[in-house]
Every structure is written in structure tokens, then in C-alpha cells.
Amino acid sequence: MIEFKNVGKTYPNGVVALKNVSLKIEPGQFVAIIGLSGAGKSTLIRLVNKMEDVTVGSLFVEGLNIPTLKGKALRQYRRRVGMVFQSFNLINRTTVINNVLAARVPDMNPISSTLGFFSKEDKLIALEALNKVGILEKAYIRADQLSGGQQQRVALARTLAQNPSIILADEPVASLDPITANQIMSDFERINKEENITILVNMHHVDLALKYASRVIGINEGEIVYDGNTTDITENILKTIYGRELTDEDIMFKDK
Amino acid sequence: MKTVIETFNERPKHTVRNVFISIFLLALIIWSSPVLLHEQFLGGTEIAKNIARSFINPSWDNLFNTRVDGIPYLMFQTVGMAVLGTILGAILSVPFAFLTAKNIVGKFNIIGNTIITTIRSFPFFLLLLMVVRVSGPGEFTAVLAIGILSIGMISKLYIEIIEDIDPGILQSLDALGATRFQKVRYGILPQLSANIISVVIYRFEINVKNATIFGIIGTGGIGTTLRLAMFAGRWRDASAALWGIIIVVILVDYFSTKIRKKLING
Amino acid sequence: MKTLCSKISNYIKTLVKRNYNYRTTIMKDGSSITRPFSYSMMTMVLTLGIIIFFWHLIITKFFNEFGARNFFQNIPNFFTIIKQMVTDVNWSYFSNVLGPMADTIRIAVIGTLVGSLIAIPVAILASQNIMGKSKIPGVVKFFLSIIRTLPLLVYAYIFSYIFGYGPYAGVLATIIFTFGIITKMMYEIIETTDMGPFIAIEATGATKIQAFRAAVVPQIMGRFYSIVLYIFEINLRASAILGFVNAGGIGMIMNDQMALRAYGDVAVMVLGLLFVIIVVQNISQYLRGRLS
């Protein structure tokens, strides 16, 4: 369970990214965070795996006090939290399976990890993860020869190979075309239901968020202005979150 | 509207500058020309004829046998010195590079920079003589000297790599809990292994030539054979050694170009 | 005979099948994936093998003959030498350095000059696009590649036998080296130059040489001067070492003083050399900047 209590985040240059954020996320939920660019969505997600630090307030995940984690304890915690990025962040020059295997590295002994000797189980885990996202046949192909959607799937497989309890996604479909974006979001949905992994996605395409997530958190200028079920969202609520009428930028499928 | 003639007359003329440069160059050349003066030939024409003749007719036996003093074995030895020396250089360069990269030591990089520049401009033969004081005149000495000299080029490469790291892949390794070492091993190295190997192979080519040259003062390999043969007036053996060098360099050149082309094309 | 052939082919087939199965993994849901045969694994093992072979050849032989203890005891010598060179610089020796240093510079100047002058016509002869259908470029390139295989110092060493000790041998060797490398660089440039203007001028009735002078030379002049300066820098550094094979320059006295263990004198020479190199480097950098 993820629990924020009165969390605030101010950057060293004075920018207040988040203020007074309190929320509880139960295990197994599929949560989408929406709002304007710069509203604080990305910051919120990155606080969970301590890629950013909390300035005030407390943050507990599965009983652990996140701001106090450092060194080995922090690395061990991060094993359980997978992260998917907008720009995929794959190792382009090597094969797909090597990318996924990178997720197994922190659990290996120093000699094997330095020499790159992966055990049979590790390789199987990696292949199963690729199979789960439907690109098993690309396992031995160089990562940069895949399409954008396929690359994001590799990134997703990489997080699955960690066997995480939570997956964070920071604008995972912003670089993809509408059809591929749909596919990736439905991958997230499937993983959330089949593996019972908590999914926390931040995105600026409202229609996709509403279509796949079960819970929506709206952020406006660093504060939570809406926290509830997808089904209860109305146009007025969206206006409060965005502070304006929705534009084409905020919708993925524009032929509505 | 200027006429053609006016434009031609007004073209930028650097007469003064050109005159100065010409005078300077002429003076430099005249000052340097004494090196072309040569008194006697010390019976050199005889030697020259011998060398030329034996070049076309080297010691065929030496060239093709597999004895310890046969050319093929010596070729192996020379290449071996270069291989080990290059690897030594690649390994030694790692700490040097890390201690000279701006994003690791900040302003202190000037120490490392000075050391590396000194290594690059140091007369390389002198370094060999200094190493001879440690391990005597032998193949191992050549390996050490080659290794130390390679630091110049290879650590420069490493430094460029370290200073231009792509943060994206490092972020994702961070997010899954990798240590700093693992981040370098899995995030940085795979991207750049092709580049690293390319430079190392290039340095290897240079080192093969250096290994030959070092041999001339006695550190083993083909170079020493050449020296012994020349000294004893065994011209045909000497030319066999020369052909050995030619063949080695051609082969090394060919394979290294091939490998480097493959690396670029992925 | 026939049964033997079929037995062998069957065996090879089983080997291939076994290798295929080894590379194949079957997933929980039945789908399977086969890893492609990896040449890079093979090359890595091969490289490792080569390294181990050479290690045995050279390093174990060394430790057997010289002795590990001997070696480790001698390591401090290296650092003592460096320390002596840094602390006991013998400035009074400087006057002895000037003469040989001048020789070193002279060797580099004449060597670069003559070498690059000879390189121009030969580079033209070696460029296929200027020579048309002639076979000459192929022959020229072939001989060039052989000339370029021998390192500078090997030439210098051999010349020291023919022409005696002293800078003359060094100059000749430098000329050959410079010639070899500049010709190569120049024909590579010429062969990738735009031939349009050249053909156009030839079409007006000019000879090949005239067309070359008019159309190609302006395009490559800048790069030529740049290359010559660059090679001059290289020749200067190489010149300093020619003396170790008795081909003249500061290397000769460096060799003598090293043998006498007069590290202070050696230090003065190295400093003088470094000074000249740095000055030349800066001038060269400035000029090359202006050329582009």
C-alpha cells in the first residue's frame, strides 16, 4: 500500500511542485494521474521510488518509510518497484533479451553480474516476461530495430522481470501513435488484472486515462483536486483539474 | 557599379603577409639544409647494394621454418608483445580516466590531464630505456613500455565516454536498484563497447610497429633479429626479417580494417 | 562407402539438431524461441585463447627467467628515475642540448618538405579519377602500401648502416615516411573530390595537368597545407627518437646520457623537447584553424 501524508515537494530553485498531498493507494489498483504539464504529476510518481525526495510530509510504501531509505536498503526497495519511462531508456546496441536481463542484475552475485553470466532461471524469467507482453519472437533482435511500441513493451518486460509489486509509468505512451498507445495501455490493464500489480500511471491524454484506469487522481498546480473513480468523472471536474476547456493536446483519439 | 578592372585592382592583397611568410620559410629551409650534407659514405654503397640485392632474395629458410629463431615464430612474438601491451594499456587507462574526468574530479582533472599529455609527448624510446632499468632488456619490458604508452590514447577515449554519458539508461538502471558499478557495466559499456574496441584495435596497430622498433634495441621479436643480422652483415637474414615485418604489418592492417568496418556497421 | 557417408551425414544432422535444441527455450504456454547462433561468443572465446597463449609465451617465460622477486624489487627504480628527472634537472647541460635539438628540428623540416613535395605528383598518379582508365594508380598504390608498412625507425636504422651515423640517415627515413603517408592521404582526398569542374575544363581543350591545376588544386590546397603541418608535428616527435638508432638529433645524446645514468641531463633534454613540441603545436593549431 502506498500512503502519502501531507506531502510537499519544493525544488532547490524554489519551484513548489506539490503541496499538501495526502492519498492512499491499495494494492492491486490501477491509478491514473492526470493534469496539465508541470502540474506535478511526474514529481508525484517519482517520489514513490525516491527518484525525487520529499520536502515535507511522510511517505510510506508497504510499511517502509521511504524518505529514510538509502544505500542498500533503497536499492532493495527499488527492486520491488518497476518504472517505465516515456523515452523507453533501453540499451539500444544490444539485444532485447539483454535489456530485460539487466533487471536481474541487482540480485546476482558480483562475479556473475560483472561477467554477464546469467543463470538459466534468469534467462527463463526474462523470456517469460517478454512472452507476457507478446514479443517473445523479438528476444534476440537488437533493441533499436524495434518499433516504438515494441520498445516500450521491452521496457515493460524489463519491469516484469523484477517481479515487482508496484509499477510506475511516467508518460509511457506520450511518444507513441494512438493505436500503439492503446495497445500499451491495454498491456498495463492486463498485467494489473493477471499479476495483481499496483499500477500508477501519469499521463496527459485524458481519454486513455479514463478508458483504462479504475481510479483517477487529478492534479492542478501541485494539489490534488480530484481523487475518485473513473466512472464519476464529469466534464466540470475535468475543467477543475485542467483549469480550462480541454484541447486537442489532451485527447489521444481526436475523431470523437 | 564598379568595373571589372576596378574590382580586380581592389581584390584583397596580402602581399606583406605573404612576403613575410615566404622569407620565414626560406630562412627555415636554408637553416635546415646542412642535414643534407654528407661527407663520406663509409663504404655504404657496398652495403646498400648488398641490402638491395638481398631484399629481392631474402633468407628463404628463415622465412618459412618454425624454429624458435624462425621468422614466423618471431612474428608471433612481436604481435604477442603488442597484444599484451595493448591490453595492459586498456586496463591501466581505466583508473587514469576516472581520475581525470571532469564530472568525477571536477577541477582536479588538471593533474590527470598533465600526466596524460606528458605521456603522449614523451619520447617513447626514452620510456623504454627507463623500463629496461626495471626488468632488463626483454620481451616483457616491451610489453610494459607499450602498455604505458598506450595510456595516452586510450584514457583520452575513456574520458570522452565518461564525460558524455546518456542519463536516460542510467535512470532506468537506478530505478530498478542497480549499484553504481552495475550501472556502468550494463548502462554505459554496452553502448560504447564497439567504439572502445575500435580505438583499441587502432592503438594495437600502432603498438605492433612499436614492438618492432623496440626490438631493434634488443627487447626481442623481429626487431632484435634484424639488429643481430645487420650487425653481423648477414644481409639475407636481415631482409628476411624486413619481409617478416612487412607481412605482419600488412596482415594486421587488413584484419583490423575489416573488424573496424564490421563494428561500425553493427 | 555409401553407408559411411550416410552415417556421417546423420551424425552431423544430430549435432545440428542438438545445437538447435540447446539454443531453444520453451515457454510455459507452449510458445518457443530459438537464440541465433552467436559469432560474438565464438570470437570472445577465441580472443581469450589468444591472450592466454601469448601470456604463456611471454610473461611466464619472463618470470621464469628474470624472477618475480627481482622484478618487484626493481619497480622502485622506475620511480626513482622519474623523481631524479623532476628534481635534479641539470640546467648547465642546456648548452650541449642546443646543437642536437637544432638537428632534430632540421630533420623534421627537410624531411617534411621534401617528402610532401615528392608526394604531390605521385598522389596524382595514384588517383584513379584523374588517370582515367589507366592501370598506373593500382600499381602505385600497391608499392605505396609496401613502403608504408615499414616503420620510420626501421628505415632510419637501415640507413644508418648505409649512410653512416648522423642526421643524413634520419632525413632520408623521414622523407620516405612523409612521402608514404602524405601521398596516401592526398590520393584519398583527390579521389573523393568533385570531378565536375575537372571534366568541364578538360572539355575546353586543356591537358590533364592544366585541368588539375585549375579545377582540383583550389579544392584541396587548404587540406594539403593542413596535412603537411600535422605531419610536421609528428615528424618532430619522431625526430627526437631517431637518435636512438644513431640517425641523428637529440636522441643520440639522450641515449648516451641514459647509459651514463645522468638523469638530470636527460631531464633537460626532455624539457627542451617538450618546449619545442608545445610551441610548434600551438603555432600549427593556429595555422590549421586559419586554413579551414
Draw up the topology in text.
The complex is a heterotrimer of chains A (256), B (266) and C (292).
Chain A: E1 2-10, E2 16-25, E3 30-35, H1 41-48, E4 56-61, E5 64-65, H2 71-79, E6 81-84, H3 96-101, H4 110-115, H5 120-132, H6 148-160, E7 166-170, H7 178-195, E8 198-202, H8 206-212, E9 215-220, E10 223-229, H9 235-242
Parallel strand pairs in A: 3-8, 3-9, 6-7, 7-8
Antiparallel strand pairs in A: 1-2, 1-4, 4-5, 9-10
Helix pairs in contact in A: 5-6, 6-7
Chain B: H1 4-9, H2 15-32, H3 44-56, H4 60-64, H5 71-98, H6 102-105, H7 109-121, H8 124-135, H9 139-163, H10 167-175, H11 180-219, H12 222-231, H13 235-265
Helix pairs in contact in B: 3-13, 5-9, 5-11, 5-13, 7-9, 8-9, 9-11, 10-11, 11-12, 11-13, 12-13
Chain C: H1 2-23, E1 24-26, E2 32-34, H2 39-65, H3 68-87, H4 94-126, H5 128-131, H6 136-149, H7 152-163, H8 167-191, H9 196-203, H10 208-242, H11 250-259, H12 263-291
Antiparallel strand pairs in C: 1-2
Helix pairs in contact in C: 3-12, 4-8, 4-10, 4-11, 6-8, 7-8, 8-10, 9-10, 10-12, 11-12
Describe the protein in words:
The complex is a heterotrimer of chains A (about 260), B (about 270) and C (about 290). Chain A is α/β, with parallel strands linked by helices and about 260 residues long. Chain A has 9 helices and 10 strands. In chain A, strands 6-7-8-3-9-10 form a 6-stranded mixed β-sheet, with helices on both faces. In chain A, helix 7 links the parallel strand 7 and strand 8. The two termini of chain A are about 35 Å apart. The model of chain A has no long low-confidence stretch (mean pLDDT about 85). Chain B has about 270 residues and is mainly alpha-helical. Chain B is extended, with a radius of gyration of 26 Å. The mean pLDDT of chain B is about 80. Chain B folds into 2 domains: about 30 residues; about 210 residues, MetI-like fold (Orthogonal Bundle), CATH 1.10.3720.10. Chain B is built from 13 helices and no strands. Chain C is mainly alpha-helical and about 290 residues long. Chain C has 12 helices and 2 strands. In chain C, strand 1 and strand 2 form a beta hairpin. Chain C is flat. The model of chain C has no long low-confidence stretch (mean pLDDT about 85). Chains in contact: A-B, A-C, B-C. The interface between B and C is large, with 60 and 60 residues.
